[in-house]
Amino acid sequence: MALGIIAFAASVSVQAYQVGSHWVQGQAGPGFFPFWLGVLLALCGAIILVREARAANGKTFFHDRTGLVSVVKVTATAAGMLVVTYLIGFRAASIIYLFVYLRFIGKHRWPAVIAMSLLIPITGYYLFERVLQVGLPRGVFELPYLG
């Protein structure tokens, strides 16, 4: 996680630097604050990394196979969500993702799975696309009746 934070912070800092992170005509450029926030975030990530490396002392990250399997399941479903979102769009992908995650990873009962798999995406659609008028990602093969 610390390496992810550092990578994210580096990305923010590089992009802010490209926008302009210097003082321009007596005032901060548009990338000034994001650049320094990225630098501070990278510093925090480095501190976390050093602290955890010192605390490890040869300890294993997972106590048993169950922890590793859980992380792989969550990572695989998240990666699947990205692929499906690219293909069919966020709205349909979120229904599929929630259904799979809640039923097969969370082991929730069918009524809760069906209700949450439909309620969360529909609420998100109306909140973002209708109320806030923020377009959600569309897929390459998005179905017309979902739009």
Give a structural overview.
With 147 residues, this protein is mainly α. The protein folds into two domains: 55 residues; 82 residues, no CATH class. Helix content is 72%, strand content 3%. The chain is built from five helices and two strands; from the N terminus they run αββαααα. It has a two-stranded antiparallel sheet. A hairpin with a 2-residue loop joins strand 1 and strand 2. Helix 1 runs antiparallel to helix 2, helix 3 packs antiparallel against helix 4 and helix 4 packs antiparallel against helix 5. It is flat. 14% of the residues are buried. The mean pLDDT is 87.
Q: Terminal Cα separation, in Å?
A: 36 Å
Radius of gyration from the CA trace? 21 Å
Shape: flat
Strand content: under 5%
Label the structural class: mainly alpha
Low-confidence spans: none
Helix content: over 70%
Q: How can the largest sheet be summarized?
A: 2 strands, antiparallel
Mean pLDDT comes to: 87
Integer count of domains: 2
Order of strands, main sheet, comes to 1-2
What is the tally of helical segments? 5
- Beta-strand segment tally: 2
The H-and-E topology, N to C, reads as HEEHHHH
